[in-house]
Amino acid sequence: MSEIKITIDGKTCSAKPGQTVLEAARNCGIYIPTLCHFEGLKPSGSCRICTVRINGRYAAACTQPAVEGMIIENAVPDIEEMRKELIEMLFVEGNHVCPACEKSGNCELQALAYRYEIFSPRFPFLFPKKEVDARTPKIYLDRNRCILCLRCVEKFRTADGKKIFAVTQRGLNSSIEIDKKLAARMSEDDARKAMDICPVGAILRKETGFVIPIGKRRFDHKPIGSEIEEGGGGRK
Amino acid sequence: MINFKSLSDERFKVGSYKKILKVHAKDKGNLLEIIRDVQAREGYVSEAALSDIADYLDLSEAEVKGVASFYHFFSLQPRGRTTVYLDDSITSRLKGRSRVASAFEEEAGCRFGQVTADGAIGLFPASCIGMNDQEPAALINGLVFTDLTPDKARVIVRGLKNGKTIHELAEEMMPGRGQSELFRNMAALNIRQKGPVLFAPFETGSAVRKIASLNPGQVIDKIKCSTLLGRGGAGFPTGLKWEICRNQDGPKRFIFANADEGEPGTFKDRVILTEIPQLVFEGMAVAGYAVGAEEGILYLRAEYAYLRSHLEAVLDEMRRAGVLGKNIAGNRSFNFDVKIKMGAGAYICGEESALIESAEGKRGDPRDRPPYPVQVGYLGRPTTVNNVETLAAAARIIVEGACWFKTMGTIKSAGTKLLSVSGDCARPGVFEVEFGIRLEELLNLAGADRPSAVQVGGPSGTCVAPAGFNRKICFEDLATGGSVIIFGPGRDIFQVVENFMDFFIEESCGRCTPCRVGNTLMKLKLGKIIQGRGTKTDLRQLEELGKMIKATSRCGLGQSSPNPILTTMENFPELYQARLRPDADFAPDFDFAQALKPGCQAAGRECPETEHEDE
């Protein structure tokens, strides 16, 4: 099938049929920020940070398929301000402890806060009481730092399709639950993948920490998104 | 379905839920039904039950817990052998809910949100249960008690303590308003005005006979020609929806009747399903024929569970009459039947993709679109979801004709609309009116005396000030799924707005950031203004936040959740202005003195002066 042409902030980009706006933008060297999207996983459309304006209407770039002729506004001031608000919301709904967090420097939420120059959220902290779950042998779940991106829910299933992570409750009480029985069978490799796929410090490995020293971490020297913007062609 | 009466002596025995599993097929789609039966039998879903259900359906425990904890009428902690769900809508509050709640609490000996020490009675709030014309109302073990007073609340609790069953109390206090056994314990219908589309006499079978000689395309054309728009509130053209669904590839399609009216203040679908379910089911058959679906599902909100046996009886009757089943009206290519699936207490499931998720036995999270349900819906098949009122209207259009239908209403909103009117008026109830009726005419019909505000379309709609009472109810002006709540002179609009925001906070699925977090932040900001601590900066920020939530939310719930605040800011600006601090343009959210108070009190020191008191 033929290539689709879309315009993002005035730049013409091409997309393959079935590609989302977010994927097309990445291939075009344009960074659309996101916290829930993860390459290879079905997008959950939950964080809404990738919100763009397409022909005057708002949509999440991660779930919106590219359609011929779309005129897309991405890095425009009012949308960037909304993204900043969304990032700030994620900070105030949890209890984030950046200076003491094992994921500091590898954390996408923290990296986005730096990129958007957030010094302090405009909203009042909600200081929720959250439970930490350390019942499973390889990992522990610190819900204080969870942003409900659902990457872990989507990624980890048993061979017969059972979910190892699931969302419980609803609304502001929504919370990630880890299946005790199934998580007991996770391998070291699964545990590492789980920690890596978590954009924040909500899933952490037991008995190991700070393997990569501060200063050599993913976002220690360059802001999040720069790998896409510098690459021009982006990742595959 | 399990007959709970026959099981009543076995209820609440440890592990007695195990029998329930065997009643249901090993199908993940039955998860809600299974949890529902366990909840009804044991009063909650225990850890052991979660584990056994998970094993039975090949799901993880975490997944089952995720579903069981999503819906309001499921619980992971015991909710009492008798569970009182007292309606917490604004109308209930205006009609004396707090005194009724106190009477329940005093007589039972526990607070709302708690269960009595002996586990006999649990008291819990519920979002609007669809009884706003007879508030305060409560659902007690699935039975409805309306027009409650403190005295009635005491009679109920004393009766239970003296060994009466809730069924006996319902028989005594809620006399059946129909002759049939099935009609016992139904709420009053309060049909105040009947119109030609819904409440005119209808001969069952007349619509399916009429289409038997037409091909599906002709049926779709008829509906398109009538310009019928969806009655749930969004107003999507029904004929177009059917056509898109029909044009999808694949052999199997589904028709859903959305009977999950959860918008506070609406109860018209309850009246339709009680009075004219035949029209709805026949509309489903018409839709099935048009779209090419042989299976229809009525998704019935849990609050209306007491209607289920009545609806099943109507379905049986229609099958016997050949209006449902195989070779309908002698047409060999016309096979259609309907089954009922129950909700479990979640406003969001009125959203069509969330409804489908729920019908599949999952959490009621809306789906991302595209693809739309008409493309990829129930079990991945093209699925048409229509409001019950839309389906009833479609059946009528088939019989009476598209031109007849278009003689009523306005140019863009043909036909009639059933409105649920409640609040401060002499004649609350349902009114079938032509689209285009002015709000003031409706207020006259309902006997509203000098209202100070009218909420049209429920919390997600618009709060209209008297200056707007000449506006018309139709898709061109004031669009509504049918909820109209009237507030009389002297009512506190901020109490209304706070109640509506609480509703959205309670009912947000939590999937997306702006709706999950933003509504709570809006309510905090609103509280600051109501307490007199706000400035014009707060007002501006409140508006910006509302607009941002509307722009970025994932579904219609989030996109309309700031409306209680935004529409009152627009239509009642003077109320907000009057609360602002005149002496400052900015005041911090954080109240230092207030934050110090607990510490000062604990230490026995004198507290600094605070700007406001805790509520």
Question: Would you write up a description of this structure?
Answer:
- Chain A has 236 residues and is of the alpha+beta class.
- Chain A has 2 domains: 4-75, Roll (Ubiquitin-like (UB roll)), CATH 3.10.20.740; 84-205, no CATH class.
- In chain A, 24% of the residues lie in helices and 16% in strands.
- Chain A contains 7 helices and 10 strands.
- Chain A has helices at 21-27, 77-93, 108-115, 151-155, 180-183, 188-197, 226-231, and strands spanning 4-8, 11-15, 51-54, 57-60, 71-73, 132-133, 139-142, 165-168, 175-178, 203-205.
- A 5-stranded mixed beta sheet of chain A has the order 2-1-5-3-4, covered by helices on one side. Chain A has a 3-stranded antiparallel beta sheet with strand order 6-7-10. In chain A, strands 8-9 form a two-stranded antiparallel ribbon.
- In chain A, a hairpin with a 5-residue loop joins strand 6 and strand 7 (139-142).
- Chain A is globular and about 50 Å long.
- By secondary structure, chain B is of the alpha/beta class.
- Chain B folds into 5 domains: 4-26 and 34-63, no CATH class; 82-183, Glutaredoxin, CATH 3.40.30; 191-406, NADH-ubiquinone oxidoreductase 51kDa subunit (Rossmann fold, 3-Layer(aba) Sandwich); 416-487, Ubiquitin-like (UB roll), CATH 3.10.20; 493-579, NADH-ubiquinone oxidoreductase 51kDa subunit, iron-sulphur binding domain (de novo design (two linked rop proteins), Up-down Bundle).
- Chain B is 42% helix and 12% strand.
- Chain B has 26 helices and 17 strands.
- In chain B, the strands form 4 sheets. Chain B has a 6-stranded mixed beta sheet. A 5-stranded mixed beta sheet of chain B has the order 2-3-1-4-5, with helices on one face. In chain B, strands 9-8-7-10 form a 4-stranded parallel beta sheet, with helices on both faces.
- The longest helix of chain B has 18 residues, at 513-530.
- Chain B is globular, with a radius of gyration of 25 Å.
- Chains A and B meet through helix 2, strand 8 and helix 5 of A and helix 5, helix 20, helix 21 and helix 22 of B.
